Each structure stands twice: as C-alpha cells, then as structure tokens.
Amino acid sequence: MVNKELLQDIFSYDNGNLYWKTVRCSKLKVGQKAGWVGKKNYLYVRVNYKAYAIHRLVWIIHNGDIDNGKIIDHIDRNPTNNKIENLRIATHTQNNQNSSKRTTNTSGYKNVYWSTEKSRWLVKCNVNGLPKYAGSYKLLGDAVQAAIELRKKFHAEFAQDDITC
C-alpha cells in the first residue's frame, strides 16, 4: 500500500506529471518522467512491484488517502491530464455521469434515444440505478435541450453539458 509520505519521497510532481526523486532500478534516472500508458490511455507507474494509476498517486500526494469506495474522476474526461486541478473524488455513479455517450448511441447525443414505437425522441438518464425520464419529443433539438436540463438537475457538477458528449 502506498501513502502520501512514501510517494513524496519517491516522486516530485509538476504540472500533472510525476518524476523520479529516488530510484532502485538502473533503467530509471532521477528526474525522469515516471510511468507508461496503459489500458484506456490511463498512465501507470510501478511502486514496490505494484502498478498504480498515476492520477490516484497524484491525488494521494496532494490530499492523502482515498476513502474506500471512492474513485478519482478526471473532470475533463482526459485520462492523461493528471493535473491536480483536473482531479476530484467521485463515487462510481458520479464518474459514470461524467462520461461520454455510449458507443451504442444512435442519436449522437447523450441521454437521447429514438423510439420506433412512439416515433419520437425519448430523453432518459439513470439516477442511483433508476431511470429518470424527461419526456418524448418530435424534434431532436428539443430532446437534446431536455437532456441537458435533466443532467443538470440530477448530475449537478458531474453533468456533461457539451452537446455531443
């Protein structure tokens, strides 16, 4: 397990990046940028033979331990932007609220779905695992606006208001 003191001994932080302060491996150099790009473009680094996501380590260096069940959310949804001002504590649900539209989305807009049964655009998001509806619309633009308002209402600071998110 890592803690703030250990990480501050091993790394220096600058503008979202970690740099080695001390090294135990001949392949690494003091002052060298730490980490590699891993799955889903997140950056990782190995500490005491275990891989850690760099955004988690940046958070710990600045704020201490992370409560169980909490995760670190990238506000701008860019997994390589580990600047401390771009990171925040979130629940799994909040992190999902700050996500892009699903790959199965056919409308091009988050929370907007076409209903062949009604021949209208439906607006729906999930809140605490339960669906919340904002109606059905003939015009796509009206549905998009309703989706934006729905996200603001239920997702608060984690709402993604960029129209094509």
Describe this structure in words.
This protein is of the alpha+beta class. The chain has 2 domains: 4-90, Homing Intron 3 (I-Ppo) Encoded Endonuclease, Chain A, CATH 3.90.75; 101-158, AP2/ERF domain (GCC-box Binding Domain). Helices cover 24% and strands 28% of the residues. The chain has 4 helices and 10 strands; from the N terminus they run H-E-E-E-E-E-H-E-E-H-E-E-E-H. The protein has helices at residues 4-10, 54-63, 92-97, 140-155; strands spanning 11-14, 17-20, 36-37, 43-47, 50-53, 71-74, 87-90, 112-115, 120-127, 130-137. It has a 3-stranded antiparallel sheet with strand order 3-4-5. Strands 8-9-10 form a 3-stranded antiparallel sheet, covered by helices on one side. A two-stranded antiparallel sheet has the order 1-2. Strand 3 and strand 4 form a beta hairpin.
Pick out the low-confidence regions: none
CATH architecture classification of the largest domain = Alpha-Beta Complex
Determine the N-to-C terminus distance: 36 Å
Mass-distribution shape: elongated
Q: Beta fraction of the residues?
A: 25-35%
* Topology, number of strands: 10
- Number of structurally distinct domains: 2
- Helix share, percent: 10-25%
Radius of gyration: 20 Å
Tally of contiguous helical segments: 4
